[in-house]
């Protein structure tokens, strides 16, 4: 069954991303033009992004494909040494829910929230407003509510100034601005059931789109993800290995696919590490750890395990293994059975399982 959905229309708030990021205009690179075409396609009836009014996604327990899982990121080099029953169909995810569609979702969700969604015009300082425009326009409303105070802290404003400097120097940065927070729009805060931690985005052209381990369709599947597919096949022999590495169908089911650093300079791995992103993503993990319960954390490799060392194991399931990189996967990753263990745990706690096989249908 093909995956399909439409994205909601929204009213733009103030300036648009094109105003804030001129490179998204007529002079954009091929990869950025592609991003725009994907977002445009998502607005058509045949397009493919998760609905703005979030559909609760569940796998069907009786389906032979109802229990699959996996992931990927450039942190590969870190490990050189060590359905619930539901008639709801999974929305297709050809592109991340467009950043320009967040405003309507923000208004809709605000009616059900305990606290109002922060508004950009509540920030008095004009310079700070401009620094944080991307966050207010592209973070999912649920995550903006969680992180509103975090993004006004000095370290984060310093990080945003650094990114401004990168742009001023003509440095190409991945992923494109509108995709930096796509993880938040695929997986709103109240819907997180699984967390996969990565390190930093892929640093080559057209790869990174805001989800760790995932690459756009048409891009060769990265080696680590190939190994993840192998592990999936061992957990679920009926798993059909896709001919792509696009994992948005996982994220749309509640798998938070989060890199520690959310940007990287083109062709320069880890170039934006230790600039502030790690503290920001620690706040994301802290929210899930403290405010959610019975979440599965998949920590692959020493870097992810260190970053997730504070997770409360009494509230959550923490699964550890070596990284799926070709450098280390042979030391236990292929037979770690994390994908099956994830669904066993979710099922045992009455939660919807993850249909890992959905990526083969998209």
Automatic annotation (TrEMBL):
Residues the record marks as active site: 200
GO aspect biological process, one term: base-excision repair, AP site formation via deaminated base removal
PROSITE patterns tied to this protein: U_DNA_GLYCOSYLASE (PS00130)
EC top class, as a word: hydrolase
Database matches in CDD domains: UDG-F1-like
Primary location: mitochondrion
GO molecular-function terms, A-Z: uracil DNA N-glycosylase activity
Organism: Tieghemiomyces parasiticus
Keyword DNA repair on entry: yes
UniProt protein name: Uracil-DNA glycosylase
